[in-house]
Amino acid sequence: MTEKVPDTPITPSDLNSDLTARLNDDQSRHINERLMSAGRVLFRGFPLESTADFAKAVRTLGGDPLPYTERSTPRKQLESGIYTSTEYTREEEIFFHNENSYQATWPGRLFFFCQRPPASGGATPLADVRQVTASLDVGIVEEFRRRGWRHIRNYHPQIGLPWSEVFGTTSREAVDLYCGDNGIQTHWNSDGTLRTVADRVALHRHPGNGDELWFNHIAFFHWTTIPERVIGVLEELFGRSGLPNNTVYGDGAEIPAEVCAHIREKYREAATRFDYRRGDLLMIDNMLTAHGREPYEGERQIAVAMT
Ligand SMILES: [Fe+2]
């Protein structure tokens, strides 16, 4: 993967602002143009230290932060709309994804704030989605355009997040209502566990420039993307059809393993990475840039917000 800071970082002298107060029109235009052309902007050297500083900068750059809905990973809320990055074992990579591209709606901008860089690794690798879209095999893309994709999720009490946490309620009726409004079918099992099925499209247009983009969790949630030793245990416990997450074609047919291998390869080819420094603020356009997480050593504190 290319070792590269996302273009040249924007610094306090470029902007003549500390990011905690409203930007003027020229400053906003400059930042928005950079974001649209590169898909990501790194702000470096700003006097941002606390979570509250981060929250102010997010409001300056993207407006009010959104709550994290339909959760797929454990996070702690630090303050309103500000979360820890996914609390997922440090030895494992988190594969490239566009935040919440399995939902009916998703955030436009994501913000990552480095409060403590890890001893090694732990970058947020970034993949250029325009490059991914252009480099995918045309036959594979057309197949998904025609058939769509399906996200199947099984909420097991002993693994992953319980449905009450994912949907933020203990009421089944409230879950049914939310899911009905968001294109998700619910199936309540006799043991009280939940299975959800959502049919989604694989390509979406960017609202800013109309580009058609590969924007989905097809490879991310597919069983072949889970590390081998983990998938072995999960399949033993739940079987393929009971996996916490899996994807199939929109008509329910299996997606061949080699198709997802090809998709993963194209994300990796389109990726760059850089090492965080304390105080770095990374802003990405969630549709133009996919992000992941490298394994790391040491303590790592990255706060995240979405707008
Ligand atoms: Fe993410």
UniProtKB/TrEMBL annotation:
This protein's cofactor list reads: Fe(2+)
User: Record's InterPro entries?
Assistant: AlphaKG_dependent_hydroxylases, TauD-like_sf, TauD/TfdA-like
Q: Where would one find the signal peptide in this protein? A: none
Sorted keywords for this record are:
Antibiotic biosynthesis, Dioxygenase, Iron, Oxidoreductase
Q: Which GO terms describe its molecular function?
A: dioxygenase activity
Q: Which residues form the TauD/TfdA-like domain?
A: 9-304
From the record, give the transmembrane residue ranges: none
Q: What is this protein called?
A: TauD/TfdA family dioxygenase
